[in-house]
Amino acid sequence: MAGLFSKIQRFLRSPKGRELQHKARKIAQDPHTRRKVSDALRKFRKR
Question: What are the boundaries of the region Disordered (predicted)?
């Protein structure tokens, strides 16, 4: 498993990995996305 985690860390340090991290943070901060996620969690917890 150590090989897998080191590959992930290497990817996250790459320019493409940093770009994806930036996009993910931007999407996570969007109020519409946050509402969708909280609604989905609420439905999941009811089960």
Answer: 15-47
Residue 44 CB-half CA count within 13 A: 6
Helices (H), the chain: 2-13, 15-29, 31-46
The encoded tokens of residue 27 equal 């999407």
pTM of the full structure: 0.61
Q: What is the pLDDT of residue 39?
A: 95
Return d(Cα 7, Cα 31) in angstroms, integer.
32
Are 39 and 30 within 8 A, CB to CB? Answer: no
pLDDT at res. 1: 65
